[in-house]
Structures are given as C-alpha cells and as structure tokens.
TrEMBL record:
It is an enzyme of class 3 (hydrolase). The keyword Nucleotide-binding applies. GO terms for biological process: mRNA processing. InterPro entries: DEAD-box_helicase_OB_fold (IPR011709), DEAD/DEAH_box_helicase_dom (IPR011545), DNA/RNA_helicase_DEAH_CS (IPR002464), HA2_WH (IPR048333), Helicase-assoc_dom (IPR007502), Helicase_ATP-bd (IPR014001), Helicase_C-like (IPR001650), P-loop_NTPase (IPR027417). This is RNA helicase. Residues 713-734 have a biased composition (Basic and acidic residues). The lineage of its organism: Eukaryota, Viridiplantae, Chlorophyta, core chlorophytes, Chlorophyceae.
Length: 739
C-alpha cells in the first residue's frame, strides 16, 4: 500500500479523534471499543502523539504477541515516514528497538511487566494503551491489576499523571469500565456490511481440515469474486490445507476456474511472510488465506468476502489438581464466531460458512472464552506479583478483573516453595528475586541457577532450547521410532514408515545408550553444533533442519540472558562459553557422542557433567517429578495435590533398565499430556539422592501459612529491589501452538 492510498481511506477511529483526546485529557483512564480494523492498534497512538501526549513521556502500546508488536511498529513507522527504532519503535523479549527519544513504543505485555520491575512507577510513559484487551491473555490480566494500582500511585508520588487506555474488539466495555473506576467508554462503529450465515447440516469437528478445504474450493468454483478466509487451529493444519488446496487446483481442467492463491497466516510465520497477506493479489486472482485465530481480531485482511469457520480453536488448559497441561482443540465461543463472521463484511456484503450446526451454536458453544488466567498455570504470575513486593498485598486478595481459582493460586504457591522462591510464610526469598530476574519460566530459571553452582549452565541452556523446539526430529525419525523400528530388532527398516535405513543409524547409536530424552537432546545438539550446524549433519541424525535452527536461535537468546544477568559458573568449573566448550568437545564427539574416543579421564569428566546436568534439572523441574510404581513400568507424578498415574510416551527414548527390566525409580518429565491416556513426554532419569530432600520439603508444606504471604517486617521502601528484569514471559513459543 502506498502513502497515496492511505489518504483516501479514513479509518473509523480517526472520526472520533477529538472526543477521545478530550476524554483522555479529562480522565485517568478510558475504554475504546472498536471493530477489528477500525484503527485502534495503528491509529490511537498516533492520534495521541499528534495531540502532544508524548511531550511528557512515551506512549506505550502493549500487544499479547511478539509478532504483533513487531509488525505493527513497522507499519506505524512506515505510515509516519520514519525509520523504525526512532520516533516509532518496539521492545519484545530479547530485542529492543527503541531509544529514550522514541515517542510511540509497541511492546509485548510481558515486556511491560518486566519494565515495572525496573521502575515501578513506569515514569518514562505518559500514556499506556493496553491493546487487544478482549484476548485476555494472562499478562494483560496481570497488567490490569498492576496498572490500576499504578494510576493511583502516579497521582500520589509523581507530578506527571499516567493515562491508561484499554482497547477491545468485543463489547465487554462495561466490565472494563466498572473495574477502572467507571471510566468513559467509546464505541467506534465499524464499517460492517451484512453477512449471510450458512450453517452446516452436520458438525464437522472430526475432520475439520478436509471439510474446510472442500468448502473453500466450492466457494472458489461457485461464488462470485472475493477472497476467502479459512480458520484452522495451527500451523501443521494450515500447511496441510494449503498443500491440498494447491494440489486440487492443479488437478482441475485449465479453464474450470480462475487462479487461486493460497496463503498461510499464523503467529510463528516470520514477519516478512506475514505482510504478504496485506499485499493485493494479481488482477483476477482469488486469494484463500488459511489462518489461525490471529485473523479473528488481531490482523485485518482486506478483501475478504467469504469466511469458512471450522468452529474450533487450539487452547491451553491446565488442571492444578494433577498438574496436567493440555493443548486441546476446543469449540470457539459465540463471541468468537460472531467476530469470525464479521471478517467477511468489511468491504461489501459477505458470506460466512459455519462448519457446524445451528443447534451446536445455540446449545453447546460457550458464550465467551474463559480468560487465560483461569485456565493456565500461575507459577510465573505469582512469582511476578511476589517480586513486586507490594506491602499491602497477598496474591490471594489481589484485585483481579476475573480472579483465578483459589486451587490454582495455592498450587502456584506450593510450586514456588518447592523451588525455594518463597519461604514457608510465602515471602519471596533471595532465590526468588534472582529467578524473577531471568526472563524465562521459573522452572528453567531455577535450573539455571543450580547449574551455575554445578558448572553446567551451557548444557542446561542447550537442553532447554531443544525442549522448546517442537520439531527436533524429521518425520518418523524420533527416538521412539528408532526404538520401535530398529534399535531393538537388529536394524530392520521400520515397518510403520517403511523407510530405508540411513539417517537413523547415527541416532540409533545415541538412543541405544539409554540416557533419557534430555541427555539425548544434549548429545544431538552438540553433535550438530560440532559438525558446523550443517544440513548434512542434521540429515545424518534424522534431525529437522528448520527445528534445529529454531533451537539454535532460542539457545542464542538464552545465552544472552545468562550473560546479561551475569550468571557465572561459580561452581567447580569455570564458566564456559559455548565457544570454549565447542573446542573442548569437538574432538570428543567425532564418533557420534564422543565417548568412544575419550580417554578414561575424559570419560569421567563427561559422566560428571551429565550427572551435574541431571542434578540441576531435577532441582529446577522438581514440580515435574514422577516415581515408578513398584514392580511395574508405570509412573505416578509426585508433588501436586494428588499424583497422576501415567505411562512413558511412545516417543520417549530409552531409559536404563535393571535386571528385572524395570526403568529408573525416579524421573523428571517435561510434559504430562493426555491424549488417549495420560503420558509423560520427554523424561530424564534422576537419583534418589537428589530427589529425597525435595520430596521431604514437599511433605512439609503448610498451605495456610504459605498463602498468608505477608511481607517481612522490614518492609522495603516503595517496593524497590535490585532485580532488573523479570521472569514472566512465555511469549516465545515454538511453532504450531495456534493463534
Ligand atoms: P484494529 O486494531 O482496530 O483492529 P488496525 O489499526 O490494526 O485496526 O488496522 C487498521 C487498518 O490498517 C486495517 O484496515 C488494516 O488492514 C491496516 N493495516 C494494519 N497493519 C497493516 C500492515 N502491516 N500493512 C498494511 N495494512 C495494515
Ligand atoms: Mg488491533
């Protein structure tokens, strides 16, 4: 889009500019409700800049997602004709493209939370816009409470009052307004044309991808021009659908239909790929944009006339009682369905094809989506609130917009106690403050601090980066496949995939050592690194090159974090940079894991560092501990309110077995998932010596005492403390987790 085009389109919010400016001038806070695409995200900040609100401080705009912050900042810089990072900038975890002179700064809600720890009055901002509030991300909900307090304190303690604006795409303005002391609400009407809703005769949840592809193709063949927007649940589905659309189209006779361009849209798409949906297609080409939930409210695609709504979304659910975290495909809410349909009526009357029945919509869809704070683990959130050290607050009575369940809060307190982050009275400890200083989740930050003591920081970082990566192995090449298909039957090709041997040979050698998944991941990482991160090396070990490059990037970022907070290897071994390590281990890992060519001394050193790594991981992942049942290779989780019985997932690599064929008594796991039945995924054997003190600590928990959460007698003045940044930001996820 050129500058000339924009002049012609006046976005709806611009027509309310004067009223909004007046309201912001006269009130501490305001709520702006506007249909998606009305200009809330890109225009509001500029309207306030033009009204000179940036003279006394910066204008901050929060986004729930990292890509959101980056793409919008780019767009606004473009609109203003300035270079990104000057007048308009952004700050996300691990990346800050702003200066003290920046006027408009887009940042993730997690980043703003961390900034609160550096300066709890957020003095540098004159205005904060909490954008996309309807998404109700966990971080946004925490910010509601934190900023509500801050409004009061800025009035008392600073000569520059703070202005807060909450924007939302759905009509929940009254609720926000009541919470923020009955502040004014603006409704910006969108340009919305009527949309015909067409329901399916039967529900298609079982195979919604095929149903969506078929519907999109039918629209292309039968309906007048206009782009199609299809809602699916994740990256893998989107890629599959696009492949199928392309192959169907190429199989059709030349002149049976016009050209169709299929484009993906999801949060893990690189920004340069994302902007493709903003570009107009060649004349006469119809586009079909296959998207996750991001197109529901956060990204507006122009030209859409047809929407295909599968009625489902991928959502995370956490059960505090069992500690089970699941990513499930669930029905969207009715509010969501209305939003999706609305995407079809932006430029002219449109049609929305719902792949579910009217009876389902009316009888079974929830009216609204449960906010994340009520369906997620609260360990990071509670640690964050604790690290603010607010004198008058214990987390159970924090002023939440929608309070999370008491059981989830108590479970978070228990876990923080087991991590030594709070003491038996619920007061944050020095360890807790150090953990809060690391922008990673509490389990990992605790593991890193322990690793520093034990001299294995580099190893723990590598393993974390690999665990954060969804696709480490190429399809059909995981350790589970290797075990089933070859390692145990003398190298026959896997019957399930029918692949010929090759890449798996090297992996098999590693899997055969039965050291568990974490150590396997470490060895694979090091083998790939020592072979120069090459494509060939990835192939040699059956690794997915894209996944490995993702792991490499995460590892680089984690290394940056560790350097920034100067987490030294204060233990037995001096801190080793990856480079130093690289030199030392390169020689060793020539024969896959290196142990063959090691001298006895080196072998002992290798065993020591692996041991240290498992120890550090055990301390950090104490809340993901499981014990084997007697005389049986099933496990029961330890620590949460009631243990959960679970099997080792078939994708697990081998574990050492004793003479009776029993696997280790104690393991830590990375995920407890419930597919057909509960499974532990990615497990690491650990030792009773490491586990038993932790289990004793668990047994001593007194939840009543923990949840009182009083601040120590010597109350800190104003809540200042040495912590620089904070551990509250799961914003960087691996690909595929939906919207
Ligand atoms: P809202 O936040 O109210 O949903 P936005 O401010 O995001 O609205 O978008 C306003 C308009 O700007 C929309 O019509 C959208 O299509 C357009 N727009 C937003 N980002 C971009 C971009 N990166 N490139 C081109 N157009 C964009
Ligand atoms: Mg927006």
């Amino acid at each position: 889009m050129t500058k000339g085009d924009e002049k012609e389109i006046v976005l709806p919010i611009r027509r309310f500019a004067e009223d909004i400016i007046a309201a912001v001038r006269d009130n501490d806070s305001a709520v702006v409700i506007g249909e998606t695409g009305s200009g809330k995200t890109t225009q509001l900040s500029q309207i306030l800049l033009e009204a000179k609100f940036a003279e006394t401080g910066q204008i901050a705009v929060t986004q729930p997602r990292r890509v959101g912050a980056v793409t919008v900042a780019k767009r606004v810089a473009e609109e203003r004709g300035v270079e990104l990072g000057t007048e308009v900038g952004y700050a996300v975890r691990f990346e800050d493209r702003s200066t003290p002179d920046t006027k408009i700064k887009y940042l993730t809600d997690g980043t703003l939370l961390r900034e609160c720890l550096e300066d709890n009055l957020l003095q540098k901002y004159s205005v904060i816009i909490l954008d996309e509030a309807h998404e109700r991300s966990l971080n946004t909900d925490i910010l509601f409470g934190v900023l509500k307090r801050l409004l009061r304190r800025r009035k008392q303690q600073s000569d520059m009052p703070l202005k807060l604006i909450i924007t939302s795409a759905t009509l929940d303005g009254e609720k926000f307004s009541t919470y923020f002391n009955d502040c004014p609400v603006f409704n910006v009407p969108g340009r919305c044309f009527p949309v015909d809703i067409i329901y399916a005769m039967e529900d298609h949840f079982k195979d919604h991808v095929s149903a969506a592809v078929d519907t999109a193709l039918q629209i292309h063949l039968q309906q007048p021009p206009g782009d199609i927007l299809v809602f699916l649940t994740g990256q893998a589905e989107i890629e599959k659908a696009i492949q199928r659309i392309n192959s169907e189209i190429s199989g059709m006779p030349e002149d049976s239909c016009g050209p169709l361009l299929a484009l993906p849209l999801h949060a893990s798409l690189p920004p340069e790929m994302q902007v493709r949906v903003f570009r107009a297609p060649p004349e006469g080409t119809r586009r079909v944009i296959v998207s996750t939930n991001v197109a529901e409210t956060s990204v507006t695609v122009e030209g859409v006339v047809y929407v295909v709504d599968t009625g489902v979304v991928k959502q995370k659910h956490y059960q505090p009682a069992t500690g089970m975290d699941s990513l499930d495909v669930v029905p969207i809410s009715r509010v969501g369905a209305t939003q999706r349909a609305g995407r079809a009526g932006r430029t002219r009357p449109g049609k929305c094809f719902r792949l579910y029945t009217k009876a389902f919509y009316e009888g079974q869809m929830p009216i609204i989506t449960l906010p994340e704070i009520q369906r997620t683990s609260l360990v990071s959130a509670v640690l964050y609130l604790k690290s603010l050290e607010l004198e008058d607050m214990d987390v159970l009575s924090f002023d939440f917009l929608d309070a999370p369940g008491q059981d989830a809060l108590e479970e978070a307190l228990r876990q923080l106690y087991c991590l030594d982050a709070i003491d038996a009275d619920g007061v944050i400890t020095d360890m807790g403050r150090r953990m809060a200083g690391l922008p990673v989740d509490p389990a990992l930050s605790r593991a890193l601090i322990e690793a520093e003591k034990l001299g294995c920081v580099s190893e723990v970082i590598s393993i974390s980066a690999m665990l954060a990566t969804e696709h480490v192995f190429s399809a059909g090449q995981g350790p589970g496949d290797v075990l089933r298909g070859g390692a145990r039957n003398g190298g026959m090709p896997s019957s399930s995939t029918g692949r010929v041997e090759g890449p798996r040979e090297r992996l098999r050698e590693l899997v055969r050592r039965a050291e568990g998944d974490h150590v396997l991941l470490l060895r694979l990482w090091e083998a790939w690194r020592d072979r120069g991160y090459s494509r060939d090396a990835a192939y040699e070990f059956g690794l997915d090159l894209r996944g490995m490059n993702f792991a490499k990037e995460i590892r680089r970022q984690l290394e940056g974090v560790v350097k920034e907070v100067r987490l030294h290897g204060a233990g037995k071994r001096p801190r080793e940079d990856e480079d130093v390590l690289e030199g030392r281990w390169r020689k060793l890992s020539d024969d896959v894991d290196g142990t063959l060519s090691m001298s006895p001394r080196q072998r002992a050193e290798d065993a020591r560092r692996i041991e240290a790594t498992c120890h550090a991981l055990t301390v950090g992942f104490v809340n993901k501990l499981a014990r084997r049942l007697p005389r049986h290779n099933g496990y029961k989780t330890v620590g949460s309110t009631k243990g959960q019985l679970a099997q080792l997932h078939p994708s697990c690599s081998g574990l050492p077995e004793d003479d009776d064929g029993l696997t280790p008594e104690w393991v830590i796991y990375h995920e407890l998932v419930s597919t057909s039945k509960p499974f532990l995924r990615q497990v690491c054997p650990t030792r009773p010596e490491y586990v038993l003190p932790l289990v004793a600590k668990m047994a001593s928990i007194n939840v009543l005492r923990l949840s009182r959460g009083r601040i120590r007698e010597q109350v800190r003045s104003g809540g200042d403390h040495p912590s620089k940044t904070n551990a509250f930001d799961p914003e960087h996820k691996s690909s595929g987790a939906g919207g």
